[in-house]
Amino acid sequence: MIGEVLPGSARVAITGVGAKAPDRIVTNHDLAELVETNDEWVVERTGIRERRFAAEGEALSDYAIPAARIALAQAGLEGTDIDLIIVCTLTPDMVFPCTAALVGDAIGAKNAAAYDLSAGCTGFVYGIAQAYGMIASGLASRALVIGGDLLSKILDMHDRGTVVLFGDGCGAVVLEKVAKGGFLGFELGADGAGGKDLFMPGGGSRIPATHASIDRGDHLIHMNGREVFKFATRILVASAEHTLARCGVTIADVDVYIPHQANMRIIEYAVGKLGIPQEKVVINVDRFGNTSGGSIPLALADAQAAGRLHDGDLVLMTGMGTGLTWGSALIEWNGTGEGR
Ligand code: UT7
């Protein structure tokens, strides 16, 4: 599914950004006490130096709610102004009710439509595309899209192939109609044949929780890292190129590139193939690892905090992850919400 925003469609922009990650920093040296690994290997193969892990008993909404409040304050809005909440995550507080409804209750968005969206590390891009469509069509007026995961809760702490990659964090954005700029186009896609390369087998209807499923590790992340790596390098480039082409712009027009923060080598490959200058690329994988749904919104918040997002800038985001899914969004930044 790919398309540029149709001429004459409503303009919809991101007018508020917020983020919240756990305080606890876990270094590669800390992980080397759990599995046979070392800082040099992890830094060289992934670029990750540290990540955040939530505390025992904490859940996604403990991060989603503060991130949402920051995004709302930046947009100058109250919870009551929001009529759509999408939480993009693999690690909701619980299977049901959806975390989005819990967030809605906490921020006072009492009657907002609320649901969780499962598209892994691509979730946030799927979420903003859906919110865009709802607002542009008039079904919603102001949306809160939250991307976040507490992957430490489903990590196999004995698997060195995954434990060094993933971390916890959450970001939130407010979307609303504006007169200038806003989203220019999206691409979303999925290839279910690759589902076997990154999955958690237990906890759904196929393998409900039993003592045996817990003993087998069915409620933890399983990953074929090499296959995901191949997919990631191919799709980050292809999805970005398709999106830019459909929107009638080139990579030279892009001011800020926010790739999924999976692995520094994957990002470097995409940056090289796309031919985008390093100074336009937002990177925080070294500090957060891969936070799945939180990856792109955390990087967006970092870019904003660093003063790297200016009204009129073209911002390209591309995600990829379990599914296997992928997605890109191109937006002309209008963070001040001019014309809303
Ligand atoms: O959102 C998408 C989420 N998933 C991803 O982004 C994952 C994409 N894949 C990757 O990032 C990489 O495949 C990994 C970082 C997971 C692995 O890096 P690699 O360069 O593909 O390593 P490899 O799997 O080819 O393994 C090379 C060696 C193996 O040892 P042998 O068989 O050559 O003796 C592994 O057992 O490195 C070993 N190894 C480790 N050594 C130290 C694997 N993990 C570790 C580790 N520390 N943490």
Quick recap:
The chain is α+β, with helices and mostly antiparallel strands. Helix content is 32%, strand content 24%. The strands form four sheets. It has a five-stranded mixed β-sheet with strand order 1-9-14-13-12, sandwiched between helices. The protein has a five-stranded mixed β-sheet with strand order 2-8-7-5-6, with helices on both faces.
Keywords:
Peroxisomal Thiolase, Chain A, domain 1, five-stranded mixed β-sheet, 340 residues, 11 helices, alpha+beta
Strand order in the sheet with the most strands: 1-9-14-13-12
CATH class: Alpha Beta
The number of distinct structural domains comes to 1
CATH superfamily caption: Thiolase/Chalcone synthase
Order of helices and strands: EEEHHEHEHEHEHEEEHEHEHHHEE
* First-last Cα distance: 28 Å
Number of strands: 14
Count of helices?
Answer: 11
Shape by Cα distribution: globular
Radius of gyration over alpha carbons?
Answer: 19 Å
Instruction: List unreliable stretches of 5+ residues.
Output: none
Structural class: alpha+beta
Level of helix content?
25-40%
User: What is the typical, i.e. mean, pLDDT?
Assistant: 97
Largest sheet: 5 strands, mixed
Per CATH, what is the topology?
A: Peroxisomal Thiolase, Chain A, domain 1
Strand content: 15-25%
Overview of this protein structure:
With 340 residues, the chain is of the alpha+beta class. It has one domain: 3-Layer(aba) Sandwich (Peroxisomal Thiolase, Chain A, domain 1). It has helices at 28-31, 39-46, 61-75, 99-107, 123-136, 160-163, 211-216, 225-247, 264-274, 285-288, 295-305; strands at 2-4, 11-20, 25-27, 50-52, 84-88, 113-117, 142-150, 168-178, 182-190, 198-199, 222-223, 256-259, 314-321, 325-332. The strands form four sheets. A five-stranded mixed β-sheet has the order 1-9-14-13-12, with helices on both faces. Helix 4 (99-107) links the parallel strand 5 (84-88) and strand 6. It is globular and about 55 Å long. The two termini are 28 Å apart. Oxa(dethia)-CoA (UT7) is lined by residues 37, 41-42, 45-46, 121, 160-161, 164-165, 223, 225-226, 228-229, 232, 262-263, 290, 321.
